[in-house]
Amino acid sequence: MEILAASAPERVNSLEEHWMPFTGNRDFKEKPRLVVSAEGVYYIDHRGGRVIDGSSGLFCSPAGHARREIADAVYKQLTTNSYSPSFQVGHPASFELARRVASLLPDPLNHVFFVNSGSEAVDTALKMVMAYHRARGQSQRLRFVSRERAYHGVNMGGVSLSGMVKNRESFPVTMPNVVMLRHTFTGNELFCDGQPQKDGVELANDLQRHCETYGGSTIAAVFVEPVAGSTGTLVPPVGYLERLREICDEHGILLVFDEVITGFGRLGTPFASQRFGVTPDITTMAKALTNGSIPMGAVAVRDEIYETVTEASPDNAIEFFHGYTYSAHPAACAAGLAALDIYQNDGLFDRAAEMAPYFAEAMMSLRDHPLVMDIRTIGMMSGIEVHHDGVPGRRGQAMQKALFWNGCHVKFTGDVGIVAPQFIAERAHIDEVVDKLRRTLDEFA
Ligand code: PLP
Q: Which pTM was predicted?
């Protein structure tokens, strides 16, 4: 193992005991990459190197790192009420945060349930779907529809909906009755800035075929990421989400948008549903809800779902047997409120919208590189896919590491780098990310 440099905190005596998530542990521990501090769009690594953050962490910190306003709000909250339960007892910040989140969402998504992560949001949404159909006497709706290449987190509900093979092949005991739509990457429109023009309705009609095969009245819900994020930024073709909405309405199926990445301005609107003009029945979110500072997720539902579930229970009874010890944790709520204040006061969603064309052009400047197979962009989100080297994913993983040592963090999934700058990024920061990507591509060419 590499000896950690003096700039690493002294208490890092061993890397062995921490079993790291989604990481090649043996490889990492041979040559670790530790972030010891962060500010704005930069990380500082344990060797003292400056690393520009090209993925907003994991797409969760659009307002930049180490925001004082959030830290102060959390400090104040923790020294006032560091924990009170959210079962049968409340605290003011959760109600205010729910109101603020609802005000960012399209009507009638006005009821918000708090959780601690995107994975929990997805599993909570699955349970809400079941509770809703049961409450309205439609318990026969036992089938769920998801999509190839989908990522809905790592809890068992989300894994059941997963369309990414590595995330599910080791865990074969998943929910039954999940059927898949085709993913939306056709390869017909490479280097596409924005929505592909072709195939939208045709791809969405997969749902119609499921209705014809299984019976629309047996399907409970369709889960989709409006833009498939973790698989490498697959933007929905024109007409795709609209057609899904139409089929859901025809058959009484709930449409769930998983906006864990796209929520809070990533596409230049508060949520992707506004960008695409399609309103789901349920929206999941997490990540940027607190600017990534404290773990928190949420599920927002249409009024009618909340009312149906709550009104189906006798007075005084618990209506939805679900919740986490840390649902609506006071510190997370304080962080959420402070993050939403920053987004609003600094106009960061508009800033994302304004910067998006520059970002798209900068990313597309890499299209001439011989290693680049495709680039897809929308809002402040892009996927740059490199040709694999014979073993899918190997080059991408190696590139992520090399890029870090070249002073840039970008999250790769397989051979796709997912570039998602902070909304506070200046043009020069975007140029820096793109330059470092090019330099790293050159090293692999
Ligand atoms: N859903 C989507 C669309 C995601 O992109 C993610 C994480 O990237 C999740 C769910 C899971 O979120 P978390 O890692 O917070 O559990």
A: 0.97
